[in-house]
Structure to design on (426 residues):
């Protein structure tokens, strides 16, 4: 329900605007198309902009409506891009009114060089948003620097809010629209303040001590941690945001799935050295470091599937399946029929094979298939018998998932039977 509710909340601005748009056209004495188009794009873009802050605030109670935090973050990205396009179209439509009489004013109209202050702050808000989105979509900067820059989104949102209220886009004649925009404005600013300024102070974080760091390969480490307080309470397959307090390692937080937890509350995670931060962890993380955990998040759960399941894990995307395998070892669920396809480039990259083999001995209907790209090639869903009657759980690189999903659709596997977790949201 989550995506439907949020899109509906954003698009509600259009029927509310329709209540008063004829009066605004007469008052401003502009060509109807330019007025109608500029107002609709401005108000819809603003509504989407406000809701993106709510989606990125990590409200746990919202997860159930989306099927996981990753789905919320991806909707956040989609809404932010849509808002940017609409907000750019808004001044362009107004600038087009100068054609052909005064085409020279067309370009200048997009910049904050107006005589009216309320128009200029709208221009500043738009150009600030464009700049930050360039560093998000086009120019990739280090994650820790991007995260700091992204906090300024709220500043430009407030400028945009001031622009809308000062210009008074039909709000004085339309109380319903005024109330709607006020609610969105309060929600957006509150969510931004909560996530940007208050989050680290009000959200409970669990403290752990690093017991052991094992380098499983030249790019993957397994980290074992011991609680310094209460043990965690999570469902197998869920993840936490980890930040490590150690020399040479940034304090930024990243999501990692808890692969296993012992009776004493000790946990393990796997980290693959892909970016600057994970390379820091691989090189610098040592025994004794303190870790702060915030969560749990995620709704990736094999218990939500049918009795016939296919698990597809690629690279460190095998982590939730390790967590599930450990859960199955503790609670033998003989009613499940599971095929695990572990996809790696070569056999030396495969980890925890012994765990899956032990589970094969314990559960008659659990089977592991090691798919090595340099031997068997890539995973082929077409080789799975009666695929349309099974639930598929997928976790791995984006490219792997993008190649698998169309093939499953061709095999008649319904969307409701395909479950995946995408960690590429930070």
């Amino acid at each position: 329900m989550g995506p439907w509710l949020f899109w509906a909340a954003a698009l509600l601005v259009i029927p509310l605007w329709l209540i008063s748009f004829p009066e605004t056209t007469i008052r401003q004495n502009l060509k109807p198309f330019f007025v109608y188009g500029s107002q609709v794009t401005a108000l819809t873009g603003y509504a989407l902009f406000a809701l993106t802050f709510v989606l990125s605030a990590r409200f746990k109670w919202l997860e159930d409506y989306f099927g996981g935090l990753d789905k919320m973050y991806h909707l956040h990205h989609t809404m932010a891009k849509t808002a940017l396009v609409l907000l750019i179209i808004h001044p362009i439509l107004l600038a087009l009114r100068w054609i052909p009489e005064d085409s020279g004013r067309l370009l200048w109209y997009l910049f904050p060089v107006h005589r009216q202050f309320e128009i200029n702050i709208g221009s500043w808000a738009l150009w600030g948003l464009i700049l930050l989105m360039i560093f998000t979509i086009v120019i990739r900067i280090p994650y820790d620097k991007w995260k700091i820059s992204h906090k300024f989104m709220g500043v430009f949102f407030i400028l945009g809010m001031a622009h809308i209220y000062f210009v008074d886009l039909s709000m004085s004649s339309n109380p319903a629209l005024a109330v709607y925009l006020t609610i969105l404005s309060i929600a957006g600013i509150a969510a931004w303040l909560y996530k940007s300024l208050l989050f680290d102070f009000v959200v409970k974080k669990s403290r752990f001590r690093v017991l052991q760091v094992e380098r499983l390969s030249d790019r993957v480490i397994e980290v074992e941690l011991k609680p310094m307080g209460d043990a965690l309470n999570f469902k197998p397959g869920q993840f936490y945001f980890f930040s490590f307090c150690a020399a040479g390692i940034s304090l930024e937080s990243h999501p990692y799935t808890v692969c296993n937890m012992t009776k004493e509350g000790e946990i393990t995670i796997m980290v693959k050295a892909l970016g600057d931060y994970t390379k820091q962890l691989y090189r610098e993380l040592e025994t004794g470091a303190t870790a702060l955990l915030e969560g749990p998040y995620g709704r990736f759960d094999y218990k939500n599937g049918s009795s016939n399941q296919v698990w597809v894990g690629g690279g460190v995307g095998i982590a939730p399946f390790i967590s599930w395998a450990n859960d199955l070892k503790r609670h033998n669920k003989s009613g499940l029929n599971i095929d695990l396809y572990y996809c790696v480039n070569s056999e030396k990259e495969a980890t925890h094979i012994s765990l899956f083999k032990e589970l094969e001995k314990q559960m008659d209907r659990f089977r592991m298939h090691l798919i090595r790209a340099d031997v068997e090639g890539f995973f082929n869903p077409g080789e799975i018998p009666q695929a349309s009657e099974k639930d598929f759980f997928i976790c791995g690189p984006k490219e792997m998932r993008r190649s698998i999903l169309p093939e499953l659709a061709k095999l008649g596997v319904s969307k409701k039977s395909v479950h995946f977790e995408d960690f590429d949201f930070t």
In short: The chain is about 45% helix and 20% strand. The chain has three domains: 2-202, 206-297, 302-421.
